[in-house]
């Protein structure tokens, strides 16, 4: 699967035969220390929360991305006095557990299309929160659950979409289910597109014709933000990036956006990024400058990408 190319943690593979039956052991994984339960390798600990990963997709390296989402949610709850979270692709449910426990969400809707994870997700949530009015688990396709919430006028303060690949198909339904002023936490794990190796695919997904550039990781984030800006504009809203985060594993590109009241897009928000293959200079260009793009070093043509330029 494209989204999963690259580094896989070998330390989570089965233990050698004869591993002593210790309660926990410390395993070095790249530059991090993992605490793993030897009796049950599916048992994990993240920021003090113990949970089961069963057969669900879980990556310890993604914990920083989860930390950032939980921090933003927590700050948002403090400023608004309430927090309702929709975790659209929850896997084993660790993210939902953390939104409940650490961000003190009033309510979390934990969804994963795979209904075989039901007992796993429910078990993990029950361990952190016995009050079952504070969470619900469902198993719908993400677009369906988001659209149903929108049709019920049941809006959320934060929607977290932890998807694989460059799946921009959830943008519109997520924006519709979001409360005005709410937070949208998006993901892209398509390193081929951000690296400029699939320009037609990035054009379809995000409206960005990306070509190989030395700052591919930044382009990957701008491509994702740009796609969201365009989709919000279609609905008559505008989104503001609060933070973006690139992680080498995957790779994973994550951006947190706030959805704001309608506003006419300013040209400086959306344009082109040029890169001179001769001198290495890069520059942003507006739509009005299209056709006049060149580099002052030699008046040569620049490689250009349509991208968001906040
Ligand atoms: C990257 S994993 C989620 C990991 C989890 N959020 C975490 O932090 O550990 C993506 C999950 O999305 C689910 N999924 C894939 N496509 C989906 C869709 N269209 N709608 C809902 N869930 C989907 C998969 O079953 C998988 O568990």
From TrEMBL:
Record-given protein name: N2,N2-dimethylguanosine tRNA methyltransferase
Superkingdom is Eukaryota
Reply yes or no: does the keyword Transferase apply: yes
List cellular component terms (GO): nucleus
User: What Pfam families does the entry give?
Assistant: TRM
What's this protein's family per the entry?
Belongs to the class I-like SAM-binding methyltransferase superfamily. Trm1 family.
PROSITE patterns for this protein: SAM_MT_TRM1
Q: Name one GO biological process term.
A: tRNA N2-guanine methylation
- Keywords noted in UniProt: Methyltransferase, RNA-binding, S-adenosyl-L-methionine, Transferase, tRNA processing, tRNA-binding
Recorded hits in InterPro entries, A to Z, give: SAM-dependent_MTases_sf, Trm1
| The keyword Methyltransferase is annotated on this UniProt entry | yes
Origin species, per record, is: Linum tenue
- What GO molecular function annotations does the UniProt record carry, in alphabetical order? tRNA (guanine) methyltransferase activity; tRNA binding
């Amino acid at each position: 699967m494209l989204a999963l190319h690259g580094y896989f943690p070998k330390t989570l593979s089965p233990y050698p035969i004869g591993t002593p039956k210790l309660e926990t052991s410390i395993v070095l994984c790249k530059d991090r220390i993992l605490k793993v339960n030897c009796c049950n390798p599916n048992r994990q600990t993240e920021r003090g929360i113990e949970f089961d990963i069963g057969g669900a997709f879980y990556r310890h390296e993604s914990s920083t991305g989860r930390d950032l989402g939980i921090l933003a949610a927590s700050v948002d709850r403090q400023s608004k006095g309430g927090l309702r979270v929709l975790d659209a692709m929850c896997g084993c449910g660790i993210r939902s557990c953390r939104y409940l426990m650490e961000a003190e969400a009033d309510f979390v809707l934990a969804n994963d299309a795979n209904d075989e994870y039901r007992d796993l997700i429910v078990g993990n949530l029950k361990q952190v929160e016995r009050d079952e009015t504070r969470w619900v688990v469902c198993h719908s396709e993400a677009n369906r659950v988001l659209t149903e919430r929108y049709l019920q006028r049941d809006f959320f303060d934060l929607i977290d979409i932890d998807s694989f690949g460059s799946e921009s198909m959830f943008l519109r339904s997520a924006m519709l289910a979001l409360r005005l002023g709410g937070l949208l936490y998006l993901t892209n794990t398509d390193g081929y597109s951000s690296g400029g190796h699939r320009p037609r695919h990035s054009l379809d997904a995000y409206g960005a014709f990306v070509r190989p550039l030395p700052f591919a990781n930044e382009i990957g984030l701008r491509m994702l933000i740009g796609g969201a800006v365009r989709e919000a504009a279609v609905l008559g809203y505008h989104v503001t990036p609060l933070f973006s985060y690139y992680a080498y594993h995957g790779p994973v590109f994550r951006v947190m956006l706030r959805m704001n009241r309608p506003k006419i897009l300013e040209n400086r928000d959306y344009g082109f990024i040029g890169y001179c293959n001769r001198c290495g200079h890069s520059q942003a260009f507006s739509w009005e400058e299209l056709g006049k793009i060149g580099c002052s070093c030699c008046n040569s043509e620049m490689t250009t990408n349509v991208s968001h330029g906040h």
